[in-house]
Amino acid sequence: MRLKLNVPKAKGHSDVATCVIWSSADSVLSCGDDHTILKWDLLTGESSLACKLGSDVYPTHVSQVPGQSKGGRNSSNLFAVTSSDGKFHFFSDGGRVEKSVEAHTGAVLCGKWSYDGSAYITAGEDGQIKIWSRSGMLRSTLSQLSCCIYSVAWSPESDQVLYTYGKELVIKPLQPSGKLVKWKAHDGIVLNTDWNPVNNLILSGGEDCKYKIWDSYGRLLFSSTAQDYPITSIAWSPSGELFAVGSFNSIRLCDKAGWCHSLEKSSTGSMANIAWSNDSTQVATACSDGNVMFAHCVEKHLEWCEYEVTLVSRKSVEVHNVVNDAHEALELKDRVIKLSLAFNYLIVITSSQCHIYSTDNFNTPSIFELRQGNVSFIMQAEKHFLLADSSGIHVYSYDGRHLCNPKIPSSSNTLVLNSRTLALSPDVLAVKDNKDDCAVLLFDALSGKPLGDGRPVVHKLEIIEVHLSQCGSLSDRFLTLVDKNHDVYLASVQKQGGNYSLAKLTSMVQSLSWNTTVNMLCGLSDSNLTIWFYPPALFVDQSILPSTQFQREYPELGKYAEISFYHENTVSVYREDGSLISLAVTPYPAVLHRLVSAGKWHEAVRLCRFAKDGALWGSLAAMSLKDRDLNTAEIAYAAIEEADKVECINEIKNIGSKEVKGAEMALFCGNSLEPEASLLHSGMIYRAIQLNIDLFRWERALDLAVKHKTHVDTVLWFRQIHLQRLHRSETNSKFKKYSQGVNLNWENIQAKIDHDLAA
Amino acid sequence: MTAEDTLADSGLHFDDLNKLRVLEPENAQQTGELKEECQEFVGKIAEFQKMVGSFISITNDLAQEVEKEKMKAIGSRNMLRSIAKQRESEQKQLQALIAEKKNQLERLRVQQQALEKQEVEQNEFIDQFSTT
């Protein structure tokens, strides 16, 4: 991907241009030291005078109230300009000054609206940071420091503020009781910072000619090499996928991991300010020679199976089929905003329409008009896809039919959706709850209605990523959550016993992906790739889970690699430096999955014998156990040398009664509550009691016996033996109470047991 | 004392043509000569001035010419210097671009390497079938 630069022929500012902002999808406002605000129309490339400022007003920064521009065009926007005379000015869209407020002594260097548009923050040469209300009333003075503050940024929730302090960066919560985070960021003065609301990462650029990426705890994720000139401006794209770095005569387009997509040179002097358009495809920069330069992203490249798709220019897309070397050129009416290629469909979003191309036929796309121009991302599943915009999410089928619009409750008036906190599968849609960071909401992907009773899956820690398995029926649908500690939890989307059962799969995973064709999961921690051939093994036999996974270290992956996709037998991984590495994984598990889902156990066993792979046997064991195919399970467990389990399975196999067999199976799978309930339900009181005795749940056993008025003596007898073996005396008052006056006779008990077992 | 002397005392003289004069004839004659000489001198001076004037204007023209040439020389000297600088910055820019392309090349090389490795693995996998 690269930026295509365009310096308009229209006259710019006669002095240094200091700041720019996008007022809509096609127009930009720029301020300059010639005391003017110019409005640029991108369609015609013309500039017009929007406002003339006083001759003593030198604008320093401009910020627009967010979340107003519904529909994008011709909305009434409020923007604020800070100036070097210590004031800030609120402007209406027409360029009329609504209000000027005396804010700082010395110049105001930066002013930004919070994401909800309710607060405005200014920082000045006097070292003060002040927060103002929408109407321009002073709310509070956040800090008073000894040196000037060059840049401030709001946190995604607008409850913290990031600012530069000399060579340091500081995160200060608005709550006075909150803890201050402060760290040395650069060797020179930090000139610029930005904090992205989508990926929650912080960017900084300094006089030491470096740009760096930090997480919200101040940990360094990326540091560039020293450039030729100081970094004068830096800006995240709203989608959080890219960022732009401005310096003297150059602008850089970088990936969120830090590596550089492209470097473009111009002769317009230093880039004083960079602004991204809302759709993250275009950039406007204020240059020190007075020009305003525009750039848009081209040459975005996508791959899926044998297809390669490239955005050649603003309005044309090229498709290359690698297998037969066929080229297709797709011309579109409008500017392309988003591209997505998966599951044999190419989706192209332009500024007004959505085009869906099947890879079988690129000539006749399904086209529909977008409800809202501003699509923030596309997510595809096998049968349908999802478009997210500021109003919510819409699910469409591949023939362009609108399927549903799930109602997602939002905490504030801004809806933060991104591809990490949202997952789409053929039947279920999972979205992280905006109100509660620890909850995930599930929806039916086709109807948009909440799944089941609509209660969320609740975890005890903050969730950062949500994934769904992609294949099979609803009973094969599993939700994986990655929490703040990077632990991975697995849950079936179907409730068990009225609750979602979350089970921990593994810990310390930095990237996770489900296979698109088979329900396998792969995770990456450092340079270790782990593939879980059968993740539901966690619910079948937790102890066997380690032997259903494949683990291998790939030193070439480096530290911060990220899985791009896991399709068929290939895992594609983005390395820290941006190179795409594809790793081949064994094709057997996929074959095994297919055989098992078709019920071909014999073939499955033969496959495992042929492949001679422990992980494959382990997976087969778990699969057969899940489907209660005991013969296969016995073979599989024997193959991975789990003698105790083979023994146990043998025993279960010999049980005649269906209920007891079921209960024993459930017990084997580590589930102790369900078998007891099912045994009681089918009237097998003694077995239920014996089950509790076997599990050393003495009180429960006694309670059951007392409740059903049978086998009290049995429980007491076994308890006595148990205590004798441990050389302990009875301490439990309940047992003391019931053992009084009871004569324990083993022969009687034995007879009763034999009678019950025979029944 | 003659009448002439008396007249001379009162400042009157007679010349040779017996006209009455207030100056002594000799003086008058010398004065006349002086006047002529002066006129001649003035004429010569005027001519000189004219010549000097033209000389000055020629010199001025020359000075201007020289100044112009001098500025030109300085300008071209500066230009030469700035071109060197410009070249240097252009070179720097190109080097930065080259470095970027190199990074890109490296990325692609790594990708190719990974793909080749995958190909080898897949071939091995296929061979496994053909041998068994």
From TrEMBL, chain A:
Entry annotated with the keyword Metal-binding: no
Ranges of the WD repeats in the UniProt entry: 10-50, 101-133, 183-215
InterPro entries: Beta-prop_IFT80_2nd, TPR_IFT80_172_dom, WD40/YVTN_repeat-like_dom_sf, WD40_repeat_dom_sf, WD40_rpt
Keyword Cell division: no
Domain IFT80/172/WDR35 TPR: 616-757
Compartments in which it is found: Cell projection, Cilium
Chief place of localization: other
Superkingdom field: Eukaryota
Residues of the IFT80 second beta-propeller domain: 299-588
Classification via PROSITE patterns: WD_REPEATS_2, WD_REPEATS_REGION
Alphabetic keyword roster: Cell projection, Cilium, WD repeat
Name of protein: Intraflagellar transport protein 80 homolog
Native organism: Clavelina lepadiformis (Light-bulb sea squirt)
TrEMBL record, chain B:
Coiled-coil regions listed: 80-121
UniProt entry keywords in alphabetical sequence: Cell projection, Coiled coil
Subcellular location: Cell projection, Cilium
Main localization category: other
Organism domain of life: Eukaryota
Keyword Transmembrane helix: no
Protein name per its UniProtKB record: Intraflagellar transport 20
UniProt source species: Clavelina lepadiformis
